[in-house]
Fold this protein.
Amino acid sequence: MGTASIRTMKAVIIHEYGGPEVLRYEDVPVPEIGPDEVPIKVHACGVNPIDWKVRQGRKKDQTHYEMPLILGWDVSGTVEETGPLVKYFRKGDRVIARPATTRNRGYAEFVAVRSMEVTLAPSTISLEQAAGVPLASQTAWVGLFEIGGLRPGQSVLIHGGSGGVGSFAVQLAKLAGARVFATTSTKNVQLVSSLGADEVIDYTLGDFRHAVSEVDILYDTVGGETQARSWEVIRKGGQLISTLGVEESAAAAHAIIGKSYLLVERRASTGDKRADRCGGYQGHYR
């Protein structure tokens, strides 16, 4: 049944910032779609750190969110219909999407998404698994390639190789022809190795600085004290890239390029080329 015949839907929303207790399961209007948009019947929605950070109000000084607010930046589901400018997708297509941060999102029965934020779901995994792909994979891609310019033959150390972003970073770096080192805990060593890491470093058994040196890029998803110990394993002129912030004075002291970034929405064409699908984001770094 198309969304046009449904006036309300169920959604998990917040009316104010706070802990888990502010989440409410309520009836809300079904979102209307624009001419270049796709309404998705949500099958699964991923939960990322950004969700609880927004819920707690940690991002309110950076981004204005109108209440009530529906969270959820990772979505999988099926296309219900399409706007008149959308030509690539059809009703019933299995898709994944990373909805815009400026509007209501995926903790709901339906979500309206711009066509450039949607791509066909992988056919080899379930929709539940596919819901974890968009945000983490885009974060890893932007950091390694758009920000870091990773090239075949370079070496990269990935902190947090078993995490959501880290696990994609390991796979993408390996596919790009890099030599991949990754840190993780004992229980995840086999997993990270299966993702393609050339060498997995169990940080619970010793200091990673004894296992690797002179890497071209260090991709950090951990931060804190781990990042503080990382400068000496990067070659002079190499890069430390992180979504958690980089201490610029420390980078300069070690003759290393430090870059931190966030995914932001890119002004993109609503063209219907396959290459545009789910690619409406770029990294801005400081």
